[in-house]
Specification:
The complex is a heterodimer. By secondary structure, chain A is mostly helical. Chain A has eleven helices and two strands, in the order ααααββααααααα. Chain B has a two-stranded antiparallel ribbon with strand order 1-2. Chain B is globular, with a radius of gyration of 22 Å. The two termini of chain B are 26 Å apart. The chains are: A mainly alpha, B mainly alpha. At the A-B interface, helix 3, helix 4, helix 9 and helix 11 of A face helix 6, helix 12 and helix 14 of B.
């Protein structure tokens, strides 16, 4: 174990970075928009499939995955924004209490999983897809081999996280988002267009999921049913890091990534039970998460 | 002559239920084919699953996404015990195992906010599935278990018995102190706790009771299988279907989930074999539309319709009387 420990840890960090990006999107959707978006994984899948399709188009024009980030991200933002403006806003207006809205929006998100996943199978045919990124090369490190695409995905995930952190903490819109997260009713009274802010937040969450999906497709195979596994991982990362905390999502992502990597080294079948054991301990000891309030 | 004058009003509902029960109990005599029996048994299974889901999640508003986990536990119990014990014992055993699992899950997660409960139960299916797979491969050294299937008649009668038992349990829970406590938790949990309701105990107990029926349903379904594979046994679909059926039917009345389960299981059998993708998409769209426009489910529509129709009928009646007055 000792001789492979550095390799296992590095792998955990690489996996954790992308997982943190996914959890960050979920965090803003639930932390601000109050939608516990179980369909988050489907947005990741859509991002991955858009990138894969654009790269493997028959013909001379092949769009590089790094370039298609600027297509998949905004496209998913639009889907998320429209979904919130239509479906979730009207659920929110009808719900008698915030808790009732959380319940009904969770159910609606389930409906979305069915619709998005099966529409994707209709469009793309339900095959596992993989492509080789032409700029990829092997990096020998710590006694094993990592791929450049994985390192690039990790670096971009961190960079996007930092940009998002600065945006939420420094910009005017970010201030409105933080106000809406604390108390939507009062924020509305202060002149914030609350429905717009919540819809933007849901859109940002979908955007981050789309970007994560594009990055994942660069080093991993993708399929229409890939979303659920990532969504479960991200949910645990979010609870571990703390609802509403951006740095918490990243710390949680690294912890879960490393635990997953270590357990996979011994017994891949026990990764999910290990996540759940951690989740249970967390719920008993610190339900608000590491950096939660 | 109006027939209603002969039969007291009170006997209408029990009489109708008895009639339905007699028709269902004698179904194998004139069903003709095993396919009819299998479809009826599947429908009864979904009724048991939807009613037992609504037993806990309906009044409290706590979203349990665990039916598939207990259902899978039931199937797996059958797979392990089928060749050694009679089916009746296995069904009871599956109920007890599910009860214990639900008790443990509930004790840990039901003290917390509702959303944590939903999150945890959401992954419970995958978690138990993985653990069972690990146990199979690394400890038993096998992958899956062959089972000697029972006849369709036995499966049908077991499901009928289970559906009736589930409905009776749900009926008595609704009418008991436990039911009132559940309602008060759904209304306002903090207030319920202040009124002296031991909220955690009430929630955990009902959650575990509802799991008994899900586990038993799995055990009966498992008895009809030829081969039980852990990966296929723990399928999230069995969590979503009962939830959709109960929400679609409406949880305000006991018969709401029954209506939802009957409609959707027939729809599923009819469509899912031929157009599985379209069925899943329609399933999702209906779920979203029901949440948006029918928060009380189909059952919630009945009082509205009655109000509308009632208004029309009473106006007609008044009109008739007014005419009589004019004539005299």
């Amino acid at each position: 174990m000792i001789e492979v420990l550095p390799a296992v840890l590095i792998n955990g960090l690489l996996v954790g970075g992308v997982l943190a990006l996914i959890a960050l999107g979920l965090n803003i959707q639930y932390g601000v928009g109050r939608v516990f978006n179980i369909a988050h994984g489907e947005f990741i899948m859509l991002g991955a499939f858009i990138t894969t399709t654009l790269f493997t188009l028959t013909g001379s024009v092949k769009i590089d995955p790094l370039v298609s980030l600027v297509i998949s991200g905004p496209f998913l933002f639009l889907i998320g924004f429209i979904l919130y403006r239509t479906l979730f806003t009207s659920l929110r207006n009808r719900a008698p209490s915030p808790a009732a809205f959380e319940g009904s929006s969770l159910l609606a998100a389930f409906g979305l999983i069915f619709v998005i996943q099966n529409t994707a199978i209709l469009i793309w045919g339900g095959r596992t897809r993989v492509y080789l990124w032409p700029h990829d090369f092997a990096i020998p490190l710590a006694g094993t081999v990592f791929r450049f695409s994985q390192v690039i995905a990790f670096a971009l995930a961190i960079a996007i996280g930092v940009v998002f952190y600065v945006f939420v903490n420094r910009s005017r819109l970010g201030k409105a988002i933080r106000a809406a997260a604390q108390d939507p009713a009062t924020a509305g009274l202060m002149g914030i267009n609350i429905n717009m802010v919540l819809a933007l937040c849901f859109g940002f969450g979908a955007l981050l999921a789309g970007l994560a999906g594009s990055l994942i497709s660069m080093y991993s195979s993708t399929s229409e049913v890939m979303g659920l596994g990532y969504a479960i991982g991200a949910i645990i990362v979010m609870v571990l890091g703390g609802l509403g905390s951006i740095p918490g999502s990243f710390i949680g992502g690294f912890i879960i990534g490393i635990i997953g990597s270590v357990v996979t080294y011994y017994e891949p079948a026990l990764v999910i039970p290990a996540y759940y054991t951690l989740f249970l301990i967390l719920l008993l000891v610190r339900p608000q998460g590491l950096l939660g309030k | 002559m109006d027939i209603t004058t002969f039969i007291p009003r009170k006997l209408w509902v029990p009489g109708l239920l008895l009639l339905i029960l007699i028709v269902l109990a004698t179904l194998p005599l004139y069903a003709g084919s095993n396919r009819v029996l299998f479809i009826s048994a599947t429908t009864l299974m979904y009724i048991a699953l939807a009613v037992s889901w609504a037993m806990f999640s309906g009044p409290t508003g706590y979203m349990s996404l665990a039916p598939a986990a207990f259902f899978g536990v039931g199937i797996y119990t059958t797979a392990i015990l089928r060749n050694e014990l009679p089916l009746g014992v296995i069904i009871v055993a599956a109920g007890i195992v599910s009860f214990i699992v639900a008790l443990l899950v509930g004790l840990v997660t039901l003290r917390l906010k509702g959303i944590y409960f939903a999150i945890f139960t959401f992954g419970l299916v995958v978690l138990i599935g993985q653990l069972v797979l690990y146990y199979d491969i690394h400890i038993l050294g096998v992958r899956g278990h062959p089972v000697t299937p029972t006849t369709y008649e036995i499966m049908y009668y077991c499901m009928l018995g289970l559906a009736v038992a589930t409905l009776l349990a749900a009926y008595f829970i609704r009418r008991s102190r436990l039911g009132l406590a559940l309602q008060s938790i759904g209304g306002n949990e903090e207030a319920a706790a202040h009124m002296g309701v031991n909220t955690t105990r009430v929630k955990v107990l009902t959650f575990a009771i509802s799991a008994i029926f899900m586990g038993a349903a799995g055990a009966i379904m498992g008895a009809r299988m030829v081969f039980v594979d852990p990966a296929a046994t723990f399928s999230v679909g069995y969590s979503f279907s009962p939830v959709l059926m109960a929400v679609f039917g409406g949880m305000g009345q006991l018969y709401g989930p029954v209506i939802g389960a009957t409609i959707f299981s027939l729809l599923e059998i009819w469509l899912s074999g031929r157009f599985p993708l379209y069925y899943a998409i329609i399933f999702g769209i209906i779920l979203i539309l029901v949440i948006l426009y029918l928060p009380g489910g189909v059952v919630g529509l009945i009082p509205k319709l009655r109000n509308r129709l009632g208004g029309v009928i009473s106006r007609l009646g008044k009109g008739g009387k007014a005419e009589q007055h004019a004539n005299t």
